[in-house]
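A reminder from the course coordinator: this example appears on the midterm review sheet, so study it carefully.

Given structure:
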């Protein structure tokens, strides 16, 4: 019985030592958070637009035998247009969605508590 008590006390001490302090996110700043994530999303949209352009240019030769010249030029132009459209669309949509999510999080965190992290 004493051995079980000693083991229990050792385990209890290990648990107490291993507990780390927690940090609670009580509020998220709406505009800085939305701007930061929107810029990241715009950069990813730009990279994706470049990938679409490269895939479009690579497939032009394959499409040359199937389509007329006007269609091929339009297809290449679409890839170039995506380099401009995707970053702008990603920035706007991400900014709006993150801002709304931050506002909702702040409201809920005030009522029931925020997300907790171990430091």
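Designed residues:
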């Amino acid at each position: 019985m004493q051995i079980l008590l000693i083991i229990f006390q050792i385990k209890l001490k290990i648990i107490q030592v291993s507990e780390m302090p927690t940090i609670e996110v009580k509020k998220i700043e709406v505009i800085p958070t939305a701007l930061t994530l929107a810029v990241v999303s715009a950069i990813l949209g730009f990279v994706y637009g470049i990938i679409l352009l490269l895939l479009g240019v690579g497939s032009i030769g394959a499409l040359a035998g199937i389509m007329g010249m006007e269609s091929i030029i339009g297809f290449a132009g679409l890839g170039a247009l995506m380099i401009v459209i995707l970053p702008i669309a990603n920035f706007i949509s991400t900014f709006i969605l993150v801002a709304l999510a931050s506002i909702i999080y702040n409201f809920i965190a005030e009522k029931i508590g925020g997300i907790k992290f171990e430091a």
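Residues 20-118 form one domain. Helices lie at 2-18, 30-64, 69-112.
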